[in-house]
Design a protein that fits this description.
This protein is α+β, with helices and mostly antiparallel strands and 113 residues long. The chain has a single domain, classed as 2-Layer Sandwich (Yope Regulator, Chain: A). Helices cover 29% and strands 34% of the residues. The chain contains three helices and six strands, in the order H-E-E-E-E-H-E-E-H. A hairpin with a 2-residue loop joins strand 3 and strand 4.
Length: 113
């Protein structure tokens, strides 16, 4: 589950229109955050954005799979769905999908530290 620095930089460039997105290395991938909320993941040079009950159907209708990983011998699915591959070549599309993830992150209760 590694992400290349070049891909992370590419995604940050794509999302420049969204605002000052920050990438933080975590578990071989990266978490992307804005306004103090994590809204996306980069894992294996793939971009996943947060989904919730309000927007999950959008991802499912587009056939966009959730991020899954294996832990303790079982498959775990998290609430982040992959963006369409063509969005990685189109800043407007990338920002549009990222906005879905950011909206889901902002709807979620803030975590206490």
């Amino acid at each position: 589950m590694a992400s290349t620095p070049a891909f992370v930089a590419h995604v940050l460039d794509l999302l420049d229109g969204l605002g000052p997105v920050q990438a933080r290395a975590m578990f071989g991938g990266h978490g992307l955050s804005l306004q103090g909320r994590m809204f996306a993941l980069i894992v294996d040079d793939r971009l996943y954005v947060k989904a919730d009950a309000h927007n999950r159907a959008l991802f499912e209708a587009a056939g966009l799979p959730p991020f899954t990983y294996e832990a303790k011998g079982r498959r775990v699915q998290v609430a982040y769905h992959e963006v369409p591959p063509e969005a990685l070549d189109q800043p407007e599309a990338a920002v549009q999908w990222a906005c879905e993830g950011l909206a889901a992150a902002l709807r979620a209760p803030a975590r206490r530290r």
